[in-house]
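ok trying again, last paste got cut off:
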Amino acid sequence: MAPETAQKRLQFVHLAWIALGLTAAVSGGIGGAPLASLIAAMILTLIPGLTGFAVAGAGDTLRRGLVVIAWLVCALIAIVLTGGGASPLIVLLVAAPLAALLAGAPRMAAEAGTFAALALFAVFIATPAGWIPPPPRGALELAAPFAFAGLVLAALKIWHLVSRSDAAPAAAPPAELPKGEPDPQPIAMTGISWIDVTPEGRLRRVQGDTFGLVTMRPGSALGSLFTDHDFPLPPPGRTGRKLVTMELVSGQRVRVIAERHAKGCHLLMVDALDETPALPSSAVADLEAKLQSRTAFFASLGHDLKTPLNAILGYAEVMQAELMGPMPKPYADYPSIIHESGTDLLLLVDDILDLARSEAGQPRLEPEPVDLTASAESVIRQLTGQADRLGITLKLKSGDEVWAEADARAVRQIWQNLVSNAIKYSASGKTVTLETRLDNGAALLSVTDRGAGIAAADLGRLTEPFAQGTGAKPGTGLGLSVVRRFAELHGGSLRITSKPGKGTRVEVTLPRASEADIAPMEEAAE
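nice, full thing came through this time. structure:
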């Protein structure tokens, strides 16, 4: 990742924290927190947020240390003011180690984690001993919304760390040719690029040197890179590598090694100053090893995030059901808010994991007959509370069961992403319509909103990871890319139609389940 891109993302994370703090303060004010408590909360929000924004991208240890200290001190003060060991703001202690990792200082992150653990231990000792004063009036009303803001901040920082793991690999030295290639003369190499191409011949991901080509970006046609506007991709189902010499539109001659994989092609492109260039085949193995390592990191990350999230959701459900007794009236709505927010965060974690698996060619799909209508009804029940609070109505338009041959978890995730997006961009009083139907032997699901709509210039790139449209609300930009990947993995497609100011319709086509597969399920239901 380019340094300026990393700096902008880091600044975005700290601005997002300030925005989350303002929102939490407004929530606490509505809950009855006094002005003094609100001012204290905003000061504790602005100090680390503005410090992190100001020194984002700094390379010296002193300024990076200021950010870590600001997070540690402000988090500890917030915990003491909201009940000590019983405070939900304990989650803010992870902000300091994550801030150090974002600044590229792993040793500082370890030290910050140690200080945070010692501070937490001290708080747990001081609370029962009575050394921590009782919370001031209004502090408890602010604790829950700021705790949720801390969870979102942690997710954003992890997203930034994950984004940085996509940084381009360093150029590899010349290596041996694939078997069967003659020994070349020594050449001078100035660049190397690894490109992942879709079956349709479009760039899915580019890493390394872009050779000064403006068109070398995700979504571009592969042919647009070369003077003859064509590139002989290996035919589907063919094993082995294909080696060709091509001329870029910039005038450079390159040697390209192409290899088919399950979802397209991998290309290794080397800039050469000789007609008989050497190809660093070892770089292919190195890049594949890096990809496998990144996938393993995502899997580990998902486990580490899901474990506390499942605990949060479980306790929220216990509080919603009031199994341990009735909730105090001022906090009656908090369990449902915590549960919905935790569900949104869990969806984000699943999106990140599924995106990584699909890019690595390791999707986890178990196709079976799935009733799209029943799945839509389940998602509506899950998201109705969120929609009601925003004044939005969820409506299902379907005459009967619609059976698709698909992975049930993937179908639910498609619904969740599409409906959550529609709610986000719909105004109060509007309706979001879910629809399922059969059409020409295929099963279709769609979500239609009457929101802001999408500009025509943005439609072509919104399904790429981390891409967002003009005027988009804060988010990761993963939802539509995951929906598209799931649709393609099932052999289906994604179609988006939109008019600015009128609304958007997103339609996903999936394979229809056969009657022979549906019959046993219907008999079991009877």
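cool. The CA atoms of residues 6 and 210 lie 18 Å apart. Confidence is low (pLDDT under 50) at residues 166-190, 274-279.
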